[in-house]
Amino acid sequence: TKDSSSALSFFELSANQNCDLALVSLAFYYQEQEESDKLQDVLKWLKAAADQGWPLAQNNYAVALEPVDKVVAKKYSIMAADKNQIYALIRMSALLSQGGSAGDAAKAYEYAHIGARGGAKDLQYMVAMYYMEGVGTNQDPELAIKYFKKAAAQDDIIACKALGYIYKSIRQPCDLDAALYYYELAYRLGDADASVDATQIIL
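User: That's the sequence. What structure does it adopt?
Assistant: Structure tokens below.
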């Protein structure tokens, strides 16, 4: 429409003068177009916003750039993660946890722990898994349970099922009441399969 074209022209004018909000707005506008020929526009404005220091733009630029240049994409993900941008913390923690080296594992744990302390349930779950498996930190099932519970308290279904399994099959002595509680919670949150696990305990 004429109005949207005028607004787009205004944002482009402001963006060309390095207005942070305009840079980000243009980048997000082109991302929403979902047209392959808009990729260069997306990358152009996201990079401009990212280079202005916006953590969300740095993360989104990394995501958009990854199919084209994984090395540079990783650099911008690290920039965003180092500013505690939640999605970048998740991406970098997951990536580094598969890196194979002790240094990568330690950094994966560090990124996840930053977000977990901030209350991000996805990262609380990741920290719990790192404690369960000893990734980047000492193996500690009790701390794993602590962080699974933090995620479960925010209605994380996978964390609920993990707790059900731990209390039923891993922790000694087992606690079937606790296992049943978390399986039923997972079911109430929308995981139909959790009812099977709960039923096995009841029967």
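The chain has twelve helices and no strands.
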